[in-house]
TrEMBL record:
PROSITE patterns: SURF1. It is a multi-pass membrane protein. This is SURF1-like protein. The lineage of its organism: Bacteria, Bacillati, Actinomycetota, Actinomycetes, Kitasatosporales. It comes from the Bacteria. Belongs to the SURF1 family. It is found in: Cell membrane; Membrane. Keywords: Cell membrane, Membrane, Transmembrane, Transmembrane helix.
Length: 265
């Protein structure tokens, strides 16, 4: 009854099924790894945001690379804003996906070191983005700022190309080492995304809380791939039994037709 399984068509179908099963299982395992990685990163964000604020120099120093455990930690700093060396970061969007700039202002600490402060988002003045935009002034004098500690930006991590030949006082990526060379001062590693003082009047829009990755989606994909892998052998059996049944019915019909034929005289 099942001798048709040795036909060329069924041998190819069986080989394809045998290849699909382990492939789908491996894809499910990969998605589960992605789920675990994203869950771990989300937990780091949650822990960092829940931690008590600490002075910035407890977590970073000139030349320091901000780690994943330090990222998003709330830090405080006391000093003054230096708007004379302020720059803007091009091609940044706000919550409404409007394209503009981030305002990056050096913040001179009491010991003379500099902390880079991303004061928030401002709209672009026009389509050319060649002229330096109108930037609202920060508070004057000695102030205490609070913000989330962030690592230096790189093309590899952000996907943003570090273009050359930009207009004066415009940059693509926030990098403390480059800013230290430009300013010729000691700059703390990384930068902070300012969260306080709260905006007053015509000031940059503070950046929102960091979003969390959708780890549940990867979990759903993993289960989906494993269900697909289980469905392949089930589907193969259903197809094989259906063809066997159809062949048996066809054979029975042919035999019945032969029996009803009149005998030759």
């Amino acid at each position: 009854m099942y001798r048709f399984l040795m036909s060329r068509q069924w041998v190819i179908l069986t080989l394809v099924a045998l290849l699909l099963i382990p492939t789908m299982i491996r894809l499910g395992i990969w998605q589960m790894h992605r789920y675990e990685e994203r869950t771990a990163r989300n937990q780091l964000v949650t822990d960092a945001l829940a931690a008590e604020p600490v002075p910035v120099e407890k977590l970073t120093a000139p030349g320091h690379t901000v780690t994943s455990a330090e990222r998003y930690r709330t830090v405080t700093a006391k000093g003054r804003f230096d708007t004379g060396d302020e720059v803007v970061v091009r091609r940044r969007t706000n919550a409404a996906d409007e394209v503009g700039y981030h305002v990056l202002t050096p913040f001179v600490l009491e010991d003379g070191k500099v902390l880079l402060v991303n004061r928030g988002w401002i709209p672009s003045d026009g389509p050319s983005q060649r002229a330096f935009p109108k930037v609202p002034a920060p508070p004057g004098g000695t102030v205490t700022v609070k913000g989330r500690l962030m690592p230096d930006e790189t093309t590899e991590a952000s996907g943003i190309k570090n273009l050359q030949g930009l207009p004066d006082r415009q940059i693509m990526l926030i990098n403390s080492e480059r800013e230290a060379r430009r300013l010729d001062v000691r700059v703390l590693g990384g930068y902070i995304a300012q969260t306080a003082p709260e905006p007053e009047g015509d000031t940059p829009q503070l950046l929102g809380d960091p979003g969390k990755e959708d780890a549940a989606l990867n979990y759903a994909y993993a289960v989906q791939w494993w269900l697909f892998s289980a469905a392949v052998p089930v589907g193969w059996v259903i197809l094989a039994r259906r063809e066997a049944r159809e062949r048996a019915q066809a054979a029975a019909g042919a035999a019945g037709s032969a029996e009803t034929q009149p005998a030759a005289v």
